[in-house]
Amino acid sequence: MPWDGPRAIVIEHRAHAPGHVALALPAARVLLAGDMLSDREVPLLDLDAADPVGDYRDGLAALERGIRTWDVRVVVPGHGAPVRGRAGIDALIAADRSYLADLERAARDPSAEGAGSGSGSAQDPRLVDPWVAGEHRRQLAHLSRVAGRSTGQHDDRL
């Protein structure tokens, strides 16, 4: 594709959807994160993938490598506010990793505290938005069904 702008590095991954990308602009020390690293939305998984949580973790790792490689100082998510500084960027990555760990834990153990409403992530401020909370519940239900199949358990409540 013709491009007269600054050098742009494509970081392709499967975190949010097959072929999802982020763009690193090394000269500007900026990462355009696509639909990731949002302060407004929890990680939105590709539930058609064989390993949606693993794919998202791999995508976060790819973005983190790009951030380190090109000394990124500003992340611009597709949804939410741009974040300046490594501490803020690291906090976004940590929040997404924490959400994924809590989501997996709740999917494996529906009796876990907060599993129905917040998967242990009830403190995650992104879940305050009704749409985001609904997407969270949809992801939790899907992963719970998959976990139930893999352990031979079946839960008719889902």
From TrEMBL:
<feature type="region of interest" description="Disordered">
    <location>
        <begin position="105"/>
        <end position="131"/>
    </location>
</feature>
<protein>
    <recommendedName>
        <fullName>Metallo-beta-lactamase domain-containing protein</fullName>
    </recommendedName>
</protein>
<dbReference type="InterPro" id="IPR001279">
    <property type="entry name" value="Metallo-B-lactamas"/>
</dbReference>
<feature type="domain" description="Metallo-beta-lactamase">
    <location>
        <begin position="5"/>
        <end position="79"/>
    </location>
</feature>
<dbReference type="Pfam" id="PF00753">
    <property type="entry name" value="Lactamase_B"/>
</dbReference>
<dbReference type="InterPro" id="IPR036866">
    <property type="entry name" value="RibonucZ/Hydroxyglut_hydro"/>
</dbReference>
